[in-house]
C-alpha cells in the first residue's frame, strides 16, 4: 500500500473549467463539481442531447451520481476532471504533504481539500454521505456511502448500484452536504427521538385493558371464533400475518411489524378502532379465513397416514406420466404429517438437511393437488430429452414481453413437452408444459393442435393454430 500518511495530505485542484458549450467534459467523464451555491460534489457527465453536445451547442445534461441521483448542469459553476489524474507516484513518498492536480498559479482558480480518512482507522462516513475517494489503484473517484451494516458498506457512484467496495478505497473525505444526505440525517434524528420515546411507553387502558400480552387478545378472539369453528386455535389464527403489541411514538399499540432493508423495524399500526373490543372483533374477521381452511375433518378426511394421500396423487399423475417412478425421488423430497406448534400439518421435508415446509392446504384435495404438481415436475426432470425442435417465428409480443423461445422436446419415453420463454429489457421467464397423451389420439394434425392449444393457448404464449398448422417440420417432428 502507499507509504505516505493520508492524514497529512492536502489536495489542490487547479484545473477547473467553467460550464460552457465549448468546454464541457468528455461524455462519461467523472468530475469534481463546484456548485453555484459553493458546495462540492461529483458526478459522471451525461449530456441531454449527444449531437448538440458534440457540436458544442449546449451545456444541457446531468452529472450522474447513481440511480435517481444526479446534478443538473444548470446547478454547476465549475468542473474538474477526476479521471485524468492518478497520484500513485506521489503517494509512494513518505513525506508527501501536498498534491497538485493541475498547475497552480496566481491567476489559477484553485480549491484545496484536506482531512482524508481511512477505514483502517475505524472511520466510516455517515449514511448517504457523498465523499471524495482515493482508490487503492491511485485513481480518483467519488461516491455516496451506502451502509450495509454497522461496519460494512460501499460507495455508489453510478446507476444500477455500481459501487466501490471498502476494500477498493485507500482514503476518503466527505464532500458537501446535499438533499439526500440531509434527508437521511433528519431521518436519523427521528429514529433516535423515537427510540427515546419508546424506552418507557405508556399504555392506553381503553385500548389495552387486558395488558400487553398479545396472546391474551388472540385467545379471546379464538373463543368467539370457536362458536362457529370449534376447531379454532391460536396457531391457525397466526397463519395470517400475526399482530403484535409494540411501542410506537411512546405508547403501546396493536401493530404488524416487518424489517426494512437496513434491518430497521417498520411498524404498521392498527387504526381501525380505539377500544379492546373493537380490536378483538377485527382479529376475528382478520383470521377467519385461516381458521376456515384449517378444519381437520376436511384437511385429514382420508386419515392420518401420509401414504394414503401420496398414493392418490401418484395414481393421478401416473395416468399421463406413465414412466414416472416416485421411488427415484425418495430422499430428495418427502412428505409427512406432523404436529407443528400444537397443530397437525402436512409437511414437505427436504431430505437430510432438516428443513421442511408447511403445506398450508385447507383440504385433503388441495394437498393432493400440490403433491401432484411436484410429482409432475420431477417426472419431467427424470425423463431425458432425446430430440428438440425450435419453432421459427418473427417478432412476437406477448403481453408486453417478447417471445424468445418456443421449443418442442421429445423425451426418452417417446412423450413430448414444450418450453416457452419470453422477456423484456428488464426481466423474463419460461414455462414448460407436458403434452398429454390424449393430444396424440387425434386423427389429424389440425385436431392435435386444437387439443394442444388448450394446454398452451396462443393468446397467452404467442403462437396460434395458424402459426403452427403450416409448419411441416413441426408436424413431422410430432409424428403426424
What this model shows, in words?
Helix 4 crosses helix 6 and helix 8 packs across helix 9. The protein has 4 domains: 175 residues, no CATH class; 81 residues, no CATH class; 84 residues, no CATH class; 93 residues, no CATH class. With 480 residues, it is α+β, with helices and mostly antiparallel strands. A hairpin with a 2-residue loop joins strand 5 and strand 6. Helices cover 26% and strands 31% of the residues. The protein has a 6-stranded antiparallel sheet with strand order 2-7-3-4-5-6, with no helix packed on it. The chain has a 5-stranded antiparallel sheet with strand order 13-12-11-10-14, with no helix packed on it. Strands 21, 22, 23, 24 and 25 form a 5-stranded antiparallel sheet that branches. The chain starts with 9 loop residues before the first strand and ends with a helix. The longest helix is centred in the middle third of the chain and has 19 residues. The chain is extended, with a radius of gyration of 33 Å. The mean pLDDT is 93.
Quickly describe the structure:
This protein is an alpha+beta fold and 480 residues long. The protein is built from 13 helices and 25 strands.
User: How are strands sequenced across the largest beta sheet?
Assistant: 2-7-3-4-5-6
CA gyration radius, whole angstroms? 33 Å
Biggest sheet features: 6 strands, antiparallel
Number of structural units classed as domains? 4
Q: Which structural class matches the secondary elements?
A: alpha+beta
Portion of residues in beta strands equals: 25-35%
Report helical residue fraction: 25-40%
Counted beta strands: 25
* Chain-averaged pLDDT: 93
Provide a count of the helices.
Answer: 13
Parts with pLDDT < 50 across at least 5 consecutive residues: none
Query: What is the overall shape?
Result: extended
* Distance between the ends: 71 Å
Amino acid at each position: 500500500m502507499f507509504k505516505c500518511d493520508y492524514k497529512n495530505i492536502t489536495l489542490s485542484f487547479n484545473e477547473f473549467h467553467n460550464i460552457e458549450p465549448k468546454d464541457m467534459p468528455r461524455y462519461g467523464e467523472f468530475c469534481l463539481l463546484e456548485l453555484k451555491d459553493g458546495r462540492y460534489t461529483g458526478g459522471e457527465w451525461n449530456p441531454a442531447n449527444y449531437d448538440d453536445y458534440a457540436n458544442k451547442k449546449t451545456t444541457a445534461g446531468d452529472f450522474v451520481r447513481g440511480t435517481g441521483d444526479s446534478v443538473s448542469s444548470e446547478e454547476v459553476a465549475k468542473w474538474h476532471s477526476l479521471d485524468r489524474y492518478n497520484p500513485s507516484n506521489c503517494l509512494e513518498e513518505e513525506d508527501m504533504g501536498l498534491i497538485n492536480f493541475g498547475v497552480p498559479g496566481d491567476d489559477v482558480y484553485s480549491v484545496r481539500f484536506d482531512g482524508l480518512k481511512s477505514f483502517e482507522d475505524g472511520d466510516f462516513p455517515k449514511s448517504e454521505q457523498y465523499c471524495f475517494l482515493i482508490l487503492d489503484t491511485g485513481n480518483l473517484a467519488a461516491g455516496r456511502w451506502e451502509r450495509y451494516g454497522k461496519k460494512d458498506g460501499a460507495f455508489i457512484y453510478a446507476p444500477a448500484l455500481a459501487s466501490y467496495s471498502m476494500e477498493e478505497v485507500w482514503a476518503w473525505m466527505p464532500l458537501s452536504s446535499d438533499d439526500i444526505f440531509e434527508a437521511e440525517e433528519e431521518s436519523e434524528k427521528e429514529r433516535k427521538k423515537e427510540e427515546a420515546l419508546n424506552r418507557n411507553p405508556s399504555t392506553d387502558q381503553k385500548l389495552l385493558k387486558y395488558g400487553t400480552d398479545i396472546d391474551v387478545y388472540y385467545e379471546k378472539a379464538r373463543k368467539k371464533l370457536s362458536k362457529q369453528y370449534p376447531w379454532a386455535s391460536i396457531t391457525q389464527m397466526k397463519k395470517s400475518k400475526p399482530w403484535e403489541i409494540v411501542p410506537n411514538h411512546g405508547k403501546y399499540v396493536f401493530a404488524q411489524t416487518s424489517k426494512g432493508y437496513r434491518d430497521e423495524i417498520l411498524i404498521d399500526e392498527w387504526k381501525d378502532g380505539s377500544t379492546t373490543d373493537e380490536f378483538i372483533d377485527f382479529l376475528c374477521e382478520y383470521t377467519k379465513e385461516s381458521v376456515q381452511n384449517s378444519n381437520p375433518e376436511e384437511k385429514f378426511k382420508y386419515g392420518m397416514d401420509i401414504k394414503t394421500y401420496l398414493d392418490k396423487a401418484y395414481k393421478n399423475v401416473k395416468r399421463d406420466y406413465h414412466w414416472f417412478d416416485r421411488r427415484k425421488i425418495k430422499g430428495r423430497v418427502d412428505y409427512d404429517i406432523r404436529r407443528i406448534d400444537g397443530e397437525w400439518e402436512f409437511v414437505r421435508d427436504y431430505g437430510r438437511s432438516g428443513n421442511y415446509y408447511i403445506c398450508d392446504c385447507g383440504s385433503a384435495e388441495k394437498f393432493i393437488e400440490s403433491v401432484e404438481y411436484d410429482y409432475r415436475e420431477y417426472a419431467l426432470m427424470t425423463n431425458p430429452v432425446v430430440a428438440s425442435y425450435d419453432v421459427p417465428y418473427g417478432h412476437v409480443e406477448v403481453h408486453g414481453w417478447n417471445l424468445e423461445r418456443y421449443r418442442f422436446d421429445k423425451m426418452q419415453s417417446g412423450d413430448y413437452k414444450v418450453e416457452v420463454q419470453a422477456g423484456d429489457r428488464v426481466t423474463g421467464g419460461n414455462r414448460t408444459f407436458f403434452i398429454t397423451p390424449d393430444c396424440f389420439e387425434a386423427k389429424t394434425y389440425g385436431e392435435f393442435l386444437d387439443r394442444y392449444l388448450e394446454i398452451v393457448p396462443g393468446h397467452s404464449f404467442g403462437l396460434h393454430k395458424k402459426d403452427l398448422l403450416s409448419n411441416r417440420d413441426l408436424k413431422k417432428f410430432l409424428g403426424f
